[in-house]
Each structure stands twice: as structure tokens, then as C-alpha cells.
Amino acid sequence: MLKQLTYVQVWVHDQDEALAFYTEKLGMELREDVTIPEMGNFRWLTVGIPGQDTSITLMDIPGPPVFDDETREQIQTLLAKGASGGLFFTTDDAQKSYEELRSRGVEFTQEPTEQAYGIDAGFRDVSGNHFRMTQTQS
Amino acid sequence: MRTVPPERHLLRAKDIVDARYREPLDVPALAKAAYLSPAHFSREFRRAFGETPHQYLLTRRLERAAALLRSTDHSVADICFTVGLRSVGSFTTSFRRVYGVSPTAYRATHPPVERARVPTCVLQAYGRPHSSSFREDTNAA
Fold first, then answer.
1. Does ipTM surpass 0.95 in this model?
2. Helix ranges, A9-82 (H)
3. Is B49:B10 a contact under the CB 8 Å cutoff?
4. How far is it, in rounded angstroms, from Cα B25 to Cα B43?
5. Could you tell me which chain A residue has the CA closest to the CA of B120?
6. How far is Cα B103 from Cα B62, in angstroms, rounded to an integer?
């Protein structure tokens, strides 16, 4: 049966800007960066949290032949409207991580807040993807 | 580098409502976050999200007020001010229009419920009342 989640895809409006954000601001590591010229310069770009296997694929929103222009524009708009879902992370210290990420210019949607399940905070990437980090109760 | 679509800036204004509804926010302040003039901002926000920024802010405040009515024993007036509203009378009227009952009656029929593990951001997003019943701001921002 299924064993492990290996890649999670997020759409990004610009791969270079996303790569800088995920590595320089969120502290992730670059895993793979492969461009395939014969496939319209498709770029397989992945990052991940050091020490953790799961990778995040920073995916450009493709035009033809994958999506027609209208579909592509719809995805771009939905992403910018924050309708593209989100990723949840854990952190050892929500307040400290919040201050550090904020000082690097990460756009927060919610300051660290005490919840029944721990302390969590919300933020977004440049494209509009939504993230949360939770300091779970020990 | 490619620039983000204009909706990304409207999303920032929407995020500010969710994060800072307790503060005396108004449409001009939100418009600034989206780099638009207030009138243009209200139109574009409605086009993107289906309701005006004013409606979004009010329904967010009402959702938060409902949550406080369920989970605390604070007075209705305290809750009204806590969520950023300044008139208890308007609050009660808006609340009744959306939830069908007064804040006090709502509290009596909604005892605190332990909603295990569902993230608060999800509860807030799904718990916000529809703004279609509002008429007072169809012409205003």
C-alpha cells in the first residue's frame, strides 16, 4: 500500500522569486532544479526542510499544451486570491519563529495565538499560498 | 521576474481584516494595503471576493463575536468593543439579522463545544456568516 508522502506541489507565480522566498526567508534547502529544453523549458524545482524527506515542488503555472491560456489565467487568479490551499508546519517556538520570519519580510496573516491544540501563526508566500506553523503542546 | 496578479494585493487587504478586525479599520486603510484608491478598491474587492470590504469586515467581526459569546462569559457590550465595533445597538441589530436571534439568545442556545483539532483558521473561515442579508451597504463602500 501507499508508504510515504514525497512531494507536495504548490503553484507559484514566478519560480525564481519563489525559490528565493522559500530558501532565503523560510530557510528551506534547494533539492532539485532541472530544466528540460525539449519540453518548453519545463523546470522541476523542489525545496524542503533540512532533515525532512518531503519536498515541496515550486510549480510554474503552465500554458499550452498543458493548460489553455484561459485555464492558466484562472489558476493565476485563484492563487493570487488565496484559493490554492495551504501547508501546515510545526515549530518548536512559534513566537521566536514568528519574529525571525517577520524580520526577513515574511507576510503574516496571524500573529502567534494560543489555541486549544497549541500556539499557531499564519503567513503567506509571495504568490498567495497560505501556510501555518504550530507549536504543539508538549 | 513576473509581477503578481492584482488580486494578490486585494488578498493582503482581506488578510488584514482577518488579523486586525479588533482595530478601528476602515476602507481607506485597507485600500492603502492594496495600493488602490478607496472607491476603486471597494469595486475590485467585490469583483474578486463577491462582497464589499465593509461587508467582509462586518461579517468577520460578527463571526468573532459569536465565537466569544459561545466560549466566554464576557458581556455583550464588552464583546462588541472587543471585535472592533463601537455601537452596541448596531451590533445587536447586525447580529440578529445574520444569526436570527439576539446575542444573548444566541449564547443561551450555543454552549461551549470542544472542537478537537480542527485548526482555528478553518473554523474562522467556515464560521463567517454570509453577507447577502446585508442591505445597508449595497451602495456604500
1. no
2. 15-20, 69-80
3. yes
4. 18
5. A115
6. 10
